[in-house]
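Hey, can you fold this?
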Amino acid sequence: MAVKLVLDPGGTRLKFGTVRNGRLETVHSVEWSGLQSGAFEPAAVVQENENTASSGALEVHVLNRPAPPAAGEEWLQVFCRDWGEPEALCTVIDPLRNPGFDIAYTSGHPGSDRIAAAVACQRKDPGGSFIIVDAGTCITVDLLSPGSWRGGAIMPGLQMQAAAMKQAGLPVLQPDDQHHWPFTEGPEGALGRNTLDAIAAGIPWATRKGVEAIAHAYKNIDPCAQLVLTGGDAHHFDGVGGWQTFAIPNLVLQGCAMLLNEHTT
């Protein structure tokens, strides 16, 4: 049986998941440097985690988004070569084509990852309204109402902000071993009494408050909207604004798997 994969080439890493019977199963990720160096072998990781052997046949379905410079021009060939399938069947998943709802952009088009996440939410609850917070390399906050993706906001992710501070010669702010960023709830969180605490007030504390303000604005537009969190730093925004939040890992890849299933059945 062929191995069917959906791939999301993100800003700092490649995320990919196996799809069986139209459903996303195991999900894996690799930083671009690890893929290019050969230190990470996708085929071995998938087979080990699923306790299955691959026949060698490979279907690769890639989300239609620009790969970052760190990926390298031939990242897809490198990925497929690990399977011994340099000529693997490769197709593109484009969520902007017939997503199942209107896209309210006045010019250009939103990132396909944002629409894929919206597809996953809409397919699970077609009549629902969602504020979708995707906290990855960048943080996007989007509003999906029944029948319409209404737009959203984009801001630098926590790691991107910390890296910018480092480039300016300031102390390096990092998450702990559990990938939790420094954060103090309440007004005291904004009052850093040393340089590193001040950076913590200016990055994780202020970014959480910024997401809260955007979500509050969206709730004024659509009071029924529920907050959905995804992305590597999703837990940092858990319970933002005192609202109930729902963490759904790998929302973008889930949307890709759903679209793939719809287009092949």
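Oh, and this one too while you're at it.
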Amino acid sequence: MSKLGTLGARLHHGEIGYDFVKNRKIWYGISILITITAIVGLAVRGLHMGIEFQGGAVFTTPKNMSVSVSTAEGYAEDASGHDAIVQKLGDGSMRIQVAGIDTKTSDTIKERLADDLKVDAEKINAELVGPSWGEQIANKAWQGLGIFLILVVIYLAIAFEWRMALAAFVALIHDITITVGIYALVGFEVTPGTVIGLLTILGYSLYDTVVVFDSLKEQTRDITKQTRWTYSEIANRSINSTLVRSVNTTVVALLPVAGLLFIGGGVLGAGMLNDISLSLFVGLAAGAYSSIFIATPLVADLKEREPAMKSLKKRVLAKRAHGGDPDEGQDAPLTGDEHDEPADVAAAVVGPRNQPASRARGRGRPSGKRR
């Protein structure tokens, strides 16, 4: 842990770092490839919508059923004439879902299931969801997602600037597309729990992105008044300074979600846990990736197109071409055109640095102490 803390401190102070912004085309390519795969999966396989969205019935059998899932699925399909989904729960009971049936049909299916499973019909619990109610739930889910995205863009545009709002919006769409595409490829059922998980991971993704943006906003204040660093270099510094925190929070969040997905959903067979935990697991991982590799490099791309940033880049490169050392005199008083340089920007270098000792420190005093 001490080594990790030391690494985080060195990243934060710019002593070491990785150039995320310089290699942004690689990350863009990876994201585009994953997104295309998700879209193809969504187009080919489609989403497996739960009965909450399309209407139908859910039958829950008594505990400790000895019948296999495949056998119960065959019984349900024969009784209803529709495709059925059967999940075995942790207590041995079964959850049988049949879409597109009404009340009268559900009573008949319930009786036939009781005969086939050799249980009392009164012990089978039946819940009906009307198609109109399911359609209403689906519409409300889409409306909630749309309102969420609009409010996020407005807030980020006010708190930061429109370029950061646009980059955050692209990152969110990236996370949503990947999560939905994974659902289509895996074939998990989409339920209200899925929507809850999706909205949760969007908030988490934004949290990570806003942390980096806040650091970037602080370090680029009055950036055009200095000639040491370009906007992209400072953006890269912001990513590195928050990298360890992003990784730590993501790992800590993924561990309990992985427990829900692989133990609660896989081993115990808890159906609702699968719906929530898969969206959380995929979304958390995608959100952490997009915050580091997509959102901030995209902001740097957009900002570097501004005339002021182009002019700054030319001045920085010209100064370096004439022998200007970005690390020279960091502890000494600033002179010339550097007198307005912000302290945060002066510390924005990524890579090893050697801090020169102050030449005037302790001069004329035998003890070497400041008065």
